Amino acid sequence: MQRETRLAHYGRQSLPGPANPPVVRASTILHDTVASYRATKAARETDDSVLSYGRRGTTPAHALAEAVTDLEAGEASFLYPTGVAALAGALQAYLGAGDHILIVDTVFPATRSYCETVLRRQGVTMGYFPWDCTDLSAYVTPQTRLVLVESPASQSFEVMDLPALCADAHVRGVIVMADNTYGSGWLYQPLALGCDVSVIAGTKYLGGHADVMMGAACARGAAVAPLRAQAHISGQTLAPDEAYACLRGIRTLGLRLERHGENALALATWCAARPEVTRVLHPGLPGHPGADHWRRDARGCNGLFSVEFTPGFALEPFLDHLQLFAIGSSWGGFESLAMPVSPASGRQFETAPAGPMARFHAGLEHISDLIADMTAAFEAVAGADHQCAGTG
Known about the structure:
CATH topology of the largest domain: Aspartate Aminotransferase, domain 2
CATH class of the largest domain: Alpha Beta
Low-confidence stretches: none
Helix content: 25-40%
Strand content: 15-25%
């Protein structure tokens, strides 16, 4: 069965019945015999879809976890209230005092912050390595237990050679965990490329409508059991209403990402030709760092790209003049977004750009309207500069 068809049927129950699994709000699950109660508790240790207690999720959460597992080509998935919570929970499953973690230097800033604060306080040491590294010999230690990657990179979108990196890590007996929020399981499957754990902030494209918070961690092989144990011990799950909204959003994931990708590539190409622009960072553009790996391993691009403007460009007035691109954190909803970024901040292996930078998310609006909006903002900034020059 094709992936598009599976999207439309995730969670489908026997007919006649609703198209989507119903929202089940419950803490206690009642039994009429002690034998039934004991059998359910025993079954849930190996079957994550067993309805046993609200802390382990109800019907929509179970359906969503199964959907994420299929999207990611994994063996089991566990849900969390946010993407960062999923990363934190997954890292806790494999790391303890005295262990060492290697982190790609281009990782999401919130992930870096969690590792540098919480993990260090718990006795975990860490080091960083460049995004284009596939030989970890200069960075691993005898205590290295896990390599954390993100591809494409946060804000700057460099693409790693995951198959080569994972092969090197596994020779050394090290687990590889990927932040796959960009690919969201639809465009990119790190587990199929050799990773052991893949984490998605479903707040973004899985929900797709900027109205739900959700995270998921999916694993395969020997990595499943520690992740399952940590999720259950720490009481991590997703509330039924959020699970329902996210599962409903998944139905249109393929169609939405197709439009997001088309709009972003068109805008990135258009921006690259502007005289105010120094460079555009987008995995689909020729010459982008790691673009060959992305063409080999992925199924297209999402709506994100970053733009470096010429030194002295009035970035904030430009962003303020945009009408269709709102200013805001997150991305992956139907709407277009823009925000100033400094991707090199805190990194060890990257030189800061010469000019100001912004990250854009291309929404589902018509491409001609998005280009017209950017054009008007460029003209407004140029007009203001001209007036200032005239009064000087």
